[in-house]
Amino acid sequence: MKVLVLGAGIAGVTTAYALARDGHEVTVIDRQALAANETSFSNAGMVAPGHAYTWASPRAPMILLKSLWRNDTSLRFKFSTDPRLYAWSLRFLGQCNAVSAARNTGNKLRLCLYSQAQLQRTVADTGLEYDRVTGGAVYLYRDPALFEAGVRNTKVLTDLGLRLEALDPTRAAAVEPALEPVKGQFAGAIYSPSDESGDCHAFANRLAKVCERLGVKFLWQTTITNIRATADRIEGIVTDKGEHTADAYVLALGSYAPIEARRIGVRLPIYPVKGYALTLRVDGRNGAPRLSGVDEQNLMGWSRLGDRLRLTATAEFAGYDTSHRPSDFAHMLRTARSLFPGAADFDNPFMWAGLRPMTPKGTPILGQARHRNLWFNTGLGHMGWTMSHGSARVTADLIAGRKPALDLNGMTLVDA
Ligand SMILES: Cc1cc2nc3c(=O)[nH]c(=O)nc-3n(C[C@H](O)[C@H](O)[C@H](O)COP(=O)(O)OP(=O)(O)OC[C@H]3O[C@@H](n4cnc5c(N)ncnc54)[C@H](O)[C@@H]3O)c2cc1C
Fold this sequence. Notes:
Bound molecules: flavin-adenine dinucleotide
Number of helices: 11
Strand content: 15-25%
Mean pLDDT: 96
Shape: globular
Number of strands: 20
């Protein structure tokens, strides 16, 4: 079958790979000059089922409310004239109860675990290198009460079979020696031994090369400007370089998917949530962590990418604005310096901001709407690197008419 994949972020490239492996004739369209050049460019690098919690939780409404008048460094919600923000927020608030949070987190964990297994299979099959680090991730708590609550919360993940361990600071420092000098700052840590990390951008570009060897064609610097459709079929994709047709189409446009879907009358409940990232050179310095992790109080994630340390933070509702100023990174830099003093070149950070394609439930949108030859693989949110391989496999299975190995409950437009 001839399949056109729209978007070459991590979702699009992994989908192209899965489809090519199934023997389809695949073409990928992206406006960038290389793969993973938008949201997938500089994420925290964590492949982390141990952090599968959804953002919509019973605590989230109060955190959102406080951010309206406090200059919060981890969450920035400001009033806007965009009605889509309010429609999305209402749906998000509707998920902020204990029952929905547990159900959504459970769905997300299933996908994360399935996806990690698919990633590991791809790595075994291709031998790709992408600064991968295995051996777990550490989730650090500064406040004893929040640590206790964090440990209680793990039940939703451990009940579904994920192994997580509560560690006191000394044991946490034994797992991640970079924490030894600063262990006094922490009440404890939750350790997820099976989590891993790696460079999503490098992975996507190397996988794109593998795809090319499998016959996939990439149309770079090609911007989609319209989608031609009848009531139940996609007829063609209009770009600034001409029109392209196929038997099947996959919409993998990240935060821009709802904009393109609206052209054909489909409303996707996805809103861009901006995050900031710093990449610092380690270059042989001592004291940088090996394992990825999260400072839960400052909501700062990190991972070690070879000679670099990647740090990310902040959820900001700023529409499609990806601009950034040095002051946006000041809190992150302070936190990083205090956590890993002397571990990296803090004076010359590479700064970046990107847009997480968030759904209210935190699970992606897979499957179909009313167009019989269009499939979605979008809305991968704050964990799209983790969830991409599973979402791609599911998408390829659906296109082939096979029943996916993963139960898609909570991951389709019908129940988004
Ligand atoms: C700060 C931050 C930290 C994160 N940390 C993690 C993490 O540690 N672990 C994790 O699992 N996930 C993490 N994520 C989430 C993850 O990065 C995203 O979920 C994932 O990158 C989304 O991939 P995507 O392919 O759906 O979107 P994208 O990477 O944005 O890809 C969409 C593609 O569509 C193309 N496109 C859009 N519109 C058009 C058009 N009109 N014409 C042509 N092409 C178009 C774009 O060029 C782009 O290449 C993080 C995200 C952020 C922002």
